[in-house]
Write a structure and sequence with these properties.
The protein is α+β, with helices and mostly antiparallel strands. Strand 4 and strand 5 form a beta hairpin. A 4-stranded antiparallel sheet has the order 1-4-5-6, with no helix packed on it. It has a 3-stranded mixed sheet with strand order 2-3-7, with no helix packed on it. It is built from 5 helices and 7 strands, in the order αααβββββββαα. The protein has 2 domains: 52 residues, no CATH class; 68 residues, no CATH class. The protein is elongated, with a radius of gyration of 25 Å.
């Protein structure tokens, strides 16, 4: 328990620290909290650790169903077969280019589905400006399909391509 948590964390805990993941953040925070909770607060005249039992007694129980802690979005997959999530680009199976895909981003995993069928799953990257590629997606993108000729050129009229490719 930390009094005025956001401001105190920003000024006393976070400066000079680097975090590689949420787990790393929590590990460092667990090591720092005992020190932070031992100090005497001028405003309350008590240490946070001494007030913890009363605070816990006043708390209500958690809901029976845990809340979702993920980000979701629906986007049309562009020609480059990547979706951008939290500043990073994740590859998606290029066979669904031009279709709407549902993107879900949790604490550890980024998944993409098209019409309910999974078309990508990647470990979440907490860095910024990274490109995460599945080798199978890259291989599929560089393999000529039934709708393209050498070099990705369309060999048939557009109306024929739609009927053959289902787009």
């Amino acid at each position: 328990m930390v009094e005025r948590a956001n401001g105190y964390l920003q000024t006393s805990f976070m400066p000079g620290r680097e975090f590689t993941s949420p787990a790393d953040f929590n590990t460092q925070l667990d090591g720092w909290l005992p020190h932070a909770n031992e100090r005497l607060l001028r405003r309350t005249g008590a240490r946070p650790v001494d007030r913890l039992p009363a605070d816990r007694a006043a708390m209500t129980g958690l809901p029976p169903v845990p809340p979702r802690v993920e980000w979701t979005d629906r986007v049309r997959l562009s020609r480059d077969y990547y979706v951008r999530v939290a500043g990073n680009d994740y590859s998606v199976d290029p066979t669904v280019i031009g279709r709407f895909v549902d993107v879900r981003c949790g604490l550890t995993l980024v998944t993409v589905a098209c019409a309910g069928v999974p078309v990508a799953a990647h470990a979440r990257c907490w860095d910024q400006r990274q490109t995460i590629s599945d080798p199978a997606h890259v291989a599929t993108a560089h393999t000529p399909g039934p709708c393209t000729g050498p070099g990705g050129r369309q060999d048939r009229p557009r109306s024929v391509n739609r009927s053959v490719c289902g787009r």
